[in-house]
Amino acid sequence: MLRVATDEDRDRVLAWRNHPEVRRVSLNQDVISPDDHARWWQGLMADERRLLLIYERGGVPGGVVTFFDIDRDAGTAYYGYYLDNAGLEERGELLPAWIQIQRDAVKYADNELGLQRLDADVLEINEGVRSFNDRM
């Protein structure tokens, strides 16, 4: 399930984003400081061309989907996602969550945002996500 992020999610999103495995496959691989994250969060929440959603699995927050460069007139946007790798791995749910978050994101783009095209930038080393994106 996806829901719109609230300010209560801000700190957990930073922790998830700074997980070493998430950083390894991210376009920006630097550790993000709390101050930089707070500025990014404030800008994102004020920008109607961006949307941050929280993925919940069994009622527990477990990941993030971001839509950006949303053009409602053209029906296009970019998206990205990452998971609470530590928490989901501890619960033995990392792989099914990875599959479900992507399916939920595509469904949200279609049903809620009315998008006709959804793009993503993915590093070459992240072949699993590249292949899965192509199938979706």
Topology at a glance:
Blueprint: E1 2-4, H1 10-17, H2 20-24, H3 34-45, E2 51-57, E3 60-71, E4 76-83, H4 85-90, H5 94-111, E5 117-119, H6 127-135
Parallel strand pairs: 4-5
Antiparallel strand pairs: 1-2, 2-3, 3-4
Offer a quick outline of the entry:
The protein has 136 residues and is α+β, with helices and mostly antiparallel strands. Helices cover 43% and strands 24% of the residues.
The strand line-up of the biggest sheet is 1-2-3-4-5
Q: Are there runs of 5+ residues with pLDDT below 50, and where? A: none
Largest β sheet strand count, sense and barrel closure:
5 strands, mixed
Give average pLDDT, whole number.
Answer: 87
Q: Which structural class matches the secondary elements?
A: alpha+beta
Give the terminus-to-terminus CA distance: 17 Å
DSSP helix fraction: 40-55%
Shape field? globular
Radius of gyration, in Å, reads 14 Å
> Element order, helices and strands?
EHHHEEEHHEH
Strand coverage percent? 15-25%
Count of helical stretches: 6
Q: Assembly type of the shown chains?
A: single chain
Would you kindly provide a written description of the structure presented here, covering whatever features stand out?
This protein has 136 residues and is an alpha+beta fold. 43% of the residues lie in helices and 24% in strands. It has helices spanning 10-17, 20-24, 34-45, 85-90, 94-111, 127-135; strands at residues 2-4, 51-57, 60-71, 76-83, 117-119. It has a 5-stranded mixed β-sheet with strand order 1-2-3-4-5, sandwiched between helices. Strand 2 and strand 3 form a beta hairpin. The radius of gyration is 14 Å and the shape is globular. The two termini are 17 Å apart. The model has no long low-confidence stretch (mean pLDDT 87).
